[in-house]
Design brief:
The chain has 250 residues and is mostly helical. The protein has 2 domains: 8-195, no CATH class; 198-250. The protein contains 12 helices and no strands. Helix 11 (199-218) packs antiparallel against helix 12 (223-248).
Length: 250
């Protein structure tokens, strides 16, 4: 993956406005393009499921999480109970809890009203989490929130555009292509994680990729969740043991 174009030294003395613009610049590149493509698939899915354009837009604004959005549309369109829908969406979006818990403390320095973090946390996505964590070591603590807002503003607008375009163009694009669009962002997530530094991150990707297909065949409802838990736990244990072995030989 390409590294950010601005060097750490160039970011040590920037204003809030400059940090916001850098966030817009980063967000308008690959993250925005991939969100447009994947959310075009989501918009098309909403229309094919018989949902209105207003419904699709409101869902995007209030949820802003692709797995949960897809789960909601599929279960709602097939007449499932509200309890089942809420449970499925909550489980699909549970991954945002640790992301938010690790990201928000990095954005708090320099904020006059820390209560705004509650509103900012609604816009946390995998894209924002990865990019902001990579930028934080380069940015002054008091400029991280401005960078984050620039990044999420651009990606949110891209997602909105993709949803509208997908809904309006539904039927024009072949169904197989539309379905593939939904998974473009997932492939991007895997590539971003594969570029992650550290033994634990790499082991988690590898273990999850190996266990995923087998667990999906064993239980399609819980396969994805189990592969994440098993892969992450195994990676954590192996990385910790490896660090202990290295420490003994130092």
């Amino acid at each position: 993956m390409n590294s950010p174009s601005h060097r750490a030294g160039e970011l040590s003395d920037i204003s809030q406005r400059q940090a916001y613009r850098i966030g817009i610049s980063d967000g308008s590149r690959l993250p925005a393009a991939l969100l447009i493509i994947s959310l075009m698939g989501f918009g098309s899915l909403c229309r094919e499921s018989g949902l209105s354009l207003d419904f699709a837009v409101v869902q995007l604004v209030t949820m802003w999480a692709m797995p949960g959005q897809i789960a909601f549309v599929e279960l709602y369109a097939t007449g499932n109970s509200m309890f089942a829908i809420v449970l499925a969406v909550a489980m699909a979006n549970a991954r945002f809890m640790p992301m938010t818990a690790t990201l928000m403390p990095l954005l708090r320095p320099g904020m006059r009203q820390p209560a705004w973090l509650y509103a900012m946390s609604h816009l946390v996505s995998f894209n924002a989490w990865v990019w902001v964590l990579r930028r934080c070591p380069e940015l002054p603590p008091g400029r991280r929130a401005a960078y984050y807002m620039g990044f999420v503003t651009m990606t949110f607008l891209a997602g909105m555009f993709g949803t509208l375009a997908g809904y309006l163009l539904a039927g024009v694009v072949p169904g197989n292509v539309t379905l593939a669009m939904v998974f473009v962002n997932i492939v991007y997530f895997v590539l971003m994680l594969a570029d992650a530094r550290g033994l634990a991150a790499l082991l988690a990707v590898i273990a999850g990729a190996i266990a995923g297909p087998f667990l999906h065949m064993a239980t399609s409802d819980w396969g994805l969740l189990l592969s994440g838990v098993i892969g992450g736990t195994l990676a954590f244990v192996v990385a910790r043991v490896w660090r202990g072995i290295k420490a003994e030989h130092v």
